[in-house]
């Protein structure tokens, strides 16, 4: 197997690196500072340890998987990879700067994928000289558990790039489903209005947070209630995606709930800050 490069060792990047290493790829995991890499590798180890406890993986296999991941702060180390998956912050300027660097560093045939949940693939692709080799690979959190990769074709993405990514997804043990490049793609166009509606229900006093979540869990068989899920995703991320939908479609049905905006302003971003719709 070839080399699989992941840029960004946060929640999504470390999960993607874990899945690729487990599938047998040599992985280069790049982040800007050693402490981010250490944190990412610790997350990978503890996720794999769950499988050791359940006897789905031996300790030796866990060590082999970890040994296939090479952490680095040097972007140039991704140069020999067959695929580069970007999982840095959800900010167009940051992604554009990175894609310009990747475009200069890697051979023109290397596929450059982005894990963005809401930024236009077409716009990111247009910052490079190879828009045909740029594509969206939207993994779901927690990456090792969720079977889906939403694959998004930009305006210029070639058939062969799309086919390569579909085949790559299968090698990772994931199911790839295709979407075209419109705001929120499919996943967040459908998920975010539901989470937003749950927030409006809380805001308008229709029910308590526990009742809203319980109704959706027990009544619709959702694994998490919508407010718990929003906290899990991150309220800043939810707000950013809703704003993309609102601006992209110009339709008031995507207007973010004022309670969400207020919580984000307060720094209550969900599980990661210890407070969101719940306390952690
Ligand atoms: N690494 C490895 N395994 C993990 C894990 C992790 N980080 N987190 C959970 N698991 C495993 C557990 O070990 C357990 O495995 P078994 O069933 O084989 O024993 C299984 O997942 C279930 O976990 P738990 O029993 O601990 O808890 P749970 O039943 O509540 O499941 C959950 C946890 C999988 C996160 C579940 O609550 C769930 O599916 N929630 C919804 C997640 C979701 O909707 N994700 C998408 C978010 S949207 C997104 O990511 C995209 C975006 O753009 C915003």
TrEMBL record:
A Gene Ontology biological process in which this protein takes part is: fatty acid metabolic process
Record site feature (Important for catalytic activity), residues: 138
List keywords of the entry alphabetically.
Answer: NAD, Oxidoreductase
Which PROSITE patterns is this protein grouped with?
3HCDH
GO MF entries = 3-hydroxybutyryl-CoA dehydrogenase activity; NAD+ binding
**Which residues make up the binding site for CoA?**
47, 54, 117
**Residues where NAD(+) binds:** 8-13, 31, 90, 95, 117, 141, 272
Superkingdom of origin organism: Bacteria
Span of domain 3-hydroxyacyl-CoA dehydrogenase C-terminal: 184-280
Please report the stretch or stretches of sequence annotated as the 3-hydroxyacyl-CoA dehydrogenase NAD binding domain.
4-181
Entries under InterPro entries matching the protein: 3-OHacyl-CoA_DH, 3-OHacyl-CoA_DH_CS, 3-OHacyl-CoA_DH_NAD-bd, 3HC_DH_C, 6-PGluconate_DH-like_C_sf, 6PGD_dom2, NAD(P)-bd_dom_sf
Query: Residues of the signal sequence?
Result: none
Q: Which SUPFAM superfamilies match?
A: 6-phosphogluconate dehydrogenase C-terminal domain-like, NAD(P)-binding Rossmann-fold domains
Write down the Pfam families for this protein, in alphabetical order.
Answer: 3HCDH, 3HCDH_N
| Identification of the protein by name | 3-hydroxyacyl-CoA dehydrogenase
**Taxonomic source organism:** Chloracidobacterium thermophilum (strain B)
């Amino acid at each position: 197997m070839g080399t699989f490069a992941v840029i960004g060792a946060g929640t999504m990047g470390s999960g993607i690196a874990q899945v690729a290493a487990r599938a047998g790829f040599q992985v280069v995991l790049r982040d800007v500072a050693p402490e981010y890499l250490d944190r990412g590798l610790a997350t990978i180890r503890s996720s794999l340890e769950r499988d050791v406890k359940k006897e789905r993986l031996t300790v030796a296999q866990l060590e082999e998987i970890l040994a296939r991941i090479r952490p680095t702060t040097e972007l140039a180390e991704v140069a020999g990879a067959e695929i580069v998956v970007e999982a840095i912050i959800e900010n167009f300027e940051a992604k554009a700067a990175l894609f310009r660097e990747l475009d200069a560093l890697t051979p023109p045939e290397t596929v450059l994928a982005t894990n963005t949940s809401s930024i236009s693939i077409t716009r990111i692709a247009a910052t490079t000289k190879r828009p045909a080799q740029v594509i969206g690979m939207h993994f779901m959190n927690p990456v090792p558990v969720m079977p889906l990769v939403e694959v998004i074709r930009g305006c210029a993405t070639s058939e062969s790039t799309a086919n390569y990514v579909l085949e790559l997804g299968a090698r990772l043990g994931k199911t790839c489903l295709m979407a075209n490049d419109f705001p929120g793609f499919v996943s967040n166009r459908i998920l975010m209005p539901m989470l937003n509606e749950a927030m409006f229900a809380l805001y308008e006093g229709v029910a308590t947070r526990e009742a809203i979540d319980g109704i959706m869990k027990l009544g619709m068989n959702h694994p998490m209630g919508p407010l718990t899920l929003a906290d899990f995703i991150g309220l800043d991320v939810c707000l950013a995606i809703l704003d993309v939908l609102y601006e992209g479609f110009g339709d008031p049905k995507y207007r973010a709930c004022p309670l969400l905006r207020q919580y984000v302003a307060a720094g209550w971003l969900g599980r990661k800050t210890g407070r969101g719709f719940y306390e952690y």
